[in-house]
Structure prediction request, 458 residues.
Amino acid sequence: MHTEEVKVGNVIIGGGHPVVVQTMCNTHTSDIEASVAQCVRLHEAGAEMIRLTVPSPDDVKALAEIRRRLRCMGIETPLVADVHFSSGIAIAAAETVEKVRINPGNFHKDFAQAKIRFSELVNVCKEHGTAIRIGLNHGSLGERITTLYGNTPLAMKEAAMEWLDLCVQNDFRNVVVSLKASNTIVMVEAYRLLAAAMEEKGMAFPLHLGVTEAGNGDSGRIKSAVGISALLSEGIGDTIRVSLTEDPANEIPVAKYLADRCGGILHSSLAAVSIEGGKAVATYEAPSRERLMLDLSCDFGKMLLDRKIDDVEIRGCYYDGDRKVVLDGSDDAAYFEDELLQAARRRFYRPEYVACPGCGRTMYNLEETFNEVKRRTSHLKGMVIAVMGCIVNGPGEMADADWGYVGEGNGKVAIYRKKTPVARHIPENEAIDKLLELIENDSQASAGISGEAAGIDL
Prediction:
């Protein structure tokens, strides 16, 4: 898919340029020293663009100082302001940094008012040469769009096209768009629909790809690689972020692998493959465990998502330093096969987790909490559990979750059953116990209803 060039500081997105790798700080933007230090680390790790959250006017001032200090160090990596709800903050940030990420529908509940505020932002961006990313995530589409189209990939596409039409009307083309979801099937379908809709209208805005709230560890990497690589392999995508609930520096090697593979710099360690009866049997000779994991995800993720195959068996080996690890029939092989099928949503062997990577709005130790939630809920096969950093994004972004753990700030947590809060202001040190108690009570109640309906004496 050919896209127009979008200029973000000294970086060009789209227009046939290599895929741009970006990430986001998880420091509080108001903590200038910590944010500058993290930006330096992310730059050194290979980030080509760095995003910071900007929840208040004071954070705009902090962001300006962060940018000033980085430029004084000779670091020219473009900075992106992540803004929610306030068009005023977005406008102020657009005068400060190279790019602003927004969901314009959040500017006002009334669509006509939201359009006016978005047009005001566009005019400021024109004046200052600032790029915009229109970021519409699954679960944060707004009532007007979901009433018309449901909470679907189609709704995501339609919402994006409304704002892109407005950009064209305002003769503003320095725009990137994203339609992220934690569900890989939803994410891939939404981007495909948007790419087709833009082509039909003669638009060619670059696309930012990501599987949002992918989690951490192997599962977060596999899930991200499955979704992002499926689209890159079709020529869809110009810039990427791998969202992990870890140190953001850990995102860069995975994203760099995906960009290099898309650019033909890296090739799979797949040595042989056969497909019979919907099952792929793949033999690898991978230089490391991580390469095996990422190669496998990119080689077969798209085929699983598109139901070209139903299962994968892996053989061969990978190397752990000088040690050769044989895969044939091993626990390692079974584990990677299970994780791949779970990421492509073809078979669930454990709970499905949705977890944001954290940012300056997060007010608790997200990574530590997420790992503990995973440990204590690992028996709940097939259940979708979300761990979200803040109340700003949490309730909307965990659209697929059965249960959600959402930070409220001030040491308190809200627990959600689907989209409904069922417990608020729970102290952090009691919140996981409360989550498990509510899940257990709900399971018992459901079992009682099922037994009663079936005439079973429980």
Observations:
- The first helix runs from residue 32 to 45.
- Residues 454-458 have pLDDT under 50 and may be disordered.
